[in-house]
């Protein structure tokens, strides 16, 4: 009952958050609606070298990906099994990555975009998708992310041992190599 009420409130507030956040919904030709909302960002953290050799440095232009959480919550609210929930989220992310390739390839800044970045506490399976994960080194930022995700953790009913958020990166080249052929232009 409480979760249903919170989801209803979130559903009502989501359009306001979306309009204030500078996020853009990715258009999808392959699924009903992409699971990603994105925005361009200048990276401000420490340098990281990705598995394909790409070095992410301060002020690199990245596409920051956010999951469309209210969409996911609506679809998993009747699923009791955490493994099934995680598999559904994995499936949505995998199906949305080709649309991200199209978004980047059609973006006016496509030549300057170096990689995509996300933050998650659900790290399992991200390597198979092509992401590299790195710990968040700033104690304040890590604490802030953990605190801000408490409602999400409650609503998703995830029983995650590691609640520590991590950065996820995938170079533009890796994204294109892995998902470009599946992209519908």
Kindly report the spatial arrangement of strands forming the biggest sheet.
1-2-5-6-8-7
Mean pLDDT: 82
Structural class: alpha+beta
| Assembly type | single chain
**Roughly how many Å is the radius of gyration?**
16 Å
Number of helices: 7
> Spans of 5+ residues with little confidence (pLDDT < 50)?
none
| Main sheet specs | 6 strands, mixed
Helix-residue proportion: 40-55%
In what range is the share of β-strand residues?
15-25%
Order of helices and strands: HEEEEEHHEHEHHEH
N/C terminus separation? 43 Å
Estimate the global geometry from the Cα principal axes: globular
Domain YkoP-like: 3-179
Pfam family, one: YkoP
Protein name: YkoP-like domain-containing protein
Task: Break the fold down into its secondary structure elements and pairings.
Layout: H1 2-20, E1 24-25, E2 36-42, E3 48-49, E4 55-56, E5 61-67, H2 69-76, H3 82-106, E6 113-120, H4 126-129, E7 132-135, H5 139-148, H6 150-156, E8 166-171, H7 172-179
Helix pairs in contact: 3-7
Structure description:
The protein is α+β, with helices and mostly antiparallel strands. The chain contains seven helices and eight strands, in the order αβββββααβαβααβα. Strand 3 and strand 4 (55-56) form a beta hairpin. Helix 3 packs across helix 7.
């Amino acid at each position: 009952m409480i979760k249903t009420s919170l989801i209803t409130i979130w559903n009502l507030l989501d359009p306001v958050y979306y309009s204030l956040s500078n996020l853009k919904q990715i258009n999808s030709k392959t699924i009903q609606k992409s699971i990603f909302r994105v925005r361009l960002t200048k990276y401000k953290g420490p340098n990281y070298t990705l598995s394909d050799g790409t070095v992410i440095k301060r002020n690199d232009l990245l596409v920051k990906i956010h999951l469309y959480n209210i969409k996911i919550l609506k679809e998993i609210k009747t699923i009791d099994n955490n493994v099934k929930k995680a598999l559904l989220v994995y499936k949505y992310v995998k199906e949305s990555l080709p649309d991200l390739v199209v978004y980047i390839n059609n973006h006016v800044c496509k030549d300057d975009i170096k990689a995509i970045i996300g933050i998650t506490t659900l790290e399992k399976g991200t390597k198979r998708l092509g992401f590299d994960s790195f710990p968040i080194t700033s104690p304040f930022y890590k604490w802030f992310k953990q605190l801000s995700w408490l409602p999400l953790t409650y609503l998703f009913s995830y029983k995650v041992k590691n609640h520590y958020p991590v950065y996820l990166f995938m170079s533009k080249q890796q994204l294109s190599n892995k998902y470009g052929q599946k992209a519908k232009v």
